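ok new one. same drill as before - structure tokens go in, u give me an amino acid for every spot. 350 of them this time. try not to just spam alanines like last time pls lmao
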């Protein structure tokens, strides 16, 4: 999207008040006073004279803001926000790219920004702006309710190439995978209640390698953090839904466990109502084929020896049993259980 950067003016006050009063902006910028007033906007203009308005070059209307704070010799922290009506249109990415170019031209060596682990949209802006994920600063920022949250640190150096930073796991084509019967969509925060309800079932949590916290708020937060894990190249988590009416059927994920070997693992769970209808095998085929399309050479999955239903799912999805790995999986009360490993290889090019 075409944008322009210019200094703030007094007649921008109402737009700033509108943006900074928005619930999403207030959530991820907890230092903003609430309610946000015209006096707060005027104070912002006075105390941050180097920050710029992001505007529509055709109308001069405010689309957002971008600014920086010095953090040492040759280093600055950058930040941005976007008007609610201008989101998901590339405004923040274009503004960050243009602003970063100006800062580097002024002699800065390193720019960095921090985003909440749950703020997938802002992390996408960082990737589009050429910033590289450096790690997670645990418990490094306050939340609006007075708690602490993890923040992802992103940085771009003066010598980094222009354009978006590289991603290991791209987005799903068109935002979803479907075979006309089931559809896979990335897990989002709103999937928290359904996901918690399924994960907390004894026959699901008892088969999970990672124990399920019996707290719906924790599971909802995990769903919100899923986008961050995807952008980091760690895992691609999706819901499984009925392709006709979007009914929640379960979840399936691709875990990029062995990047050096181009090997990924899949794992899945279904709601009781969705079992025995072939949905899991369909989902496994969809995410496996996508894995091969993005460069995986080998896909694996595993089940407990007594989980015959899951083994049939993998066989129906084209996986082949490779063998038994003794005591590989954690069991109840500190015990260990065997794992039956299955694998599927990338088809040879024809």
């Amino acid at each position: 999207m075409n944008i322009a950067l210019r200094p703030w003016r007094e007649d921008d006050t109402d737009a700033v008040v509108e943006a900074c009063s928005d619930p999403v902006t207030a959530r991820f910028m907890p230092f903003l006073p609430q309610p946000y007033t015209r006096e707060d906007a005027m104070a912002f203009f006075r105390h941050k004279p180097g920050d710029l308005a992001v505007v529509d070059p055709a109308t001069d209307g405010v689309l957002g803001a971008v600014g920086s704070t010095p953090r040492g010799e040759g280093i600055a922290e950058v930040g941005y926000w976007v008007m609610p009506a201008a989101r998901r249109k590339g405004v923040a990415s274009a503004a960050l790219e243009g602003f970063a170019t100006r800062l580097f031209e002024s002699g800065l060596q390193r720019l960095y920004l921090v985003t909440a682990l749950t703020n997938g949209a802002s992390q996408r802006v960082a990737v589009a702006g050429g910033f590289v994920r450096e790690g997670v600063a645990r418990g490094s920022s306050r939340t609006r309710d007075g708690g602490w949250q993890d923040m992802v640190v992103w940085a771009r150096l003066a010598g980094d190439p222009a354009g978006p930073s590289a991603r290991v796991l791209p987005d799903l084509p068109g935002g979803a995978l479907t075979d006309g019967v089931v559809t896979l969509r990335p897990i989002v925060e709103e999937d928290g209640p359904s996901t918690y309800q399924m994960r907390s079932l004894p026959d699901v949590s008892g088969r999970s390698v990672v124990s399920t916290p019996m707290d719906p708020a924790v599971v909802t937060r995990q769903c919100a953090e899923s986008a961050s894990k995807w952008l980091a190249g760690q895992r691609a988590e999706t819901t499984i839904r009925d392709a006709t009416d979007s009914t929640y059927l379960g979840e399936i994920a691709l875990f990029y466990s062995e990047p050096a070997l181009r090997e990924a693992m899949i794992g899945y769970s279904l709601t009781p109502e969705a079992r025995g209808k072939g949905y899991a095998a369909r989902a496994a085929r969809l995410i496996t084929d996508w894995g091969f399309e993005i460069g995986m050479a080998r896909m694996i999955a595993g089940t407990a020896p007594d989980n015959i239903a899951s083994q049939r799912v993998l066989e129906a999805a084209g996986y082949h049993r490779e063998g038994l790995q003794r005591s590989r999986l954690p069991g109840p009360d500190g015990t260990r259980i065997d794992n039956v490993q299955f694998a599927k290889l990338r088809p040879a090019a024809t």
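The mean pLDDT is 95. and btw The chain is about 30% helix and 35% strand.
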